[in-house]
Amino acid sequence: MTGWKLRNDDWQRPMTMVQDLHNQNAKTILGTTIVQGQSGEEDLEAFIDILCGHQNIAPFIAKFFIRKMVTSNPSHGYVERVANAFNNSGLEMLALIKAVLTDDEATYSRQDEHDGLVRDPLIVFQHGLRALNVKLKNNYTMLPDAFSWHNRRTILEGQASFTITNRKSRQRMSASKASLRPNLSSTTGTTFTTTTAKSPI
Fold it and tell me: What's the sign of the alpha-carbon dihedral 92, 98, 100, 104?
């Protein structure tokens, strides 16, 4: 994945490809060969397709999102059901999130000591700041640059977004992007309302 560079050292903007710095030799990723002579963009697309086609990608992403959104200790059955829904949808993020939030195990019981979601310490800290309505002064950041690398991890300042899809899914998502905001609606009537939020990291 050589040849990708930041634009003016700005991590918030998409990286650009410098073709002269890209290695155009053939590459083997997880047993699959990317043919030689391709551009950096073509190699990246092929690399993403290889990762999305791997048998472990759906369970890995399913468990990651379950642990971030519902419970820190998901059962194997919970992970498997979400992974199957994710796979069957062609790795669509909407299907993944719906499966995570509508599963029978997406509940919380105070009687079960292993149930619930353990929040990251940084998120707990940020929630406290927001509850107290703390505001940053102009030209001030929560962490010094040496610890946050161009404010990438600055609390209350980071921008959040994610896209984990293969090439076909990205094309479908792009074509229907306008219909996904401000609500994400499923065919079963479940509606997920999105908000513009800032991430602590």
Answer: negative
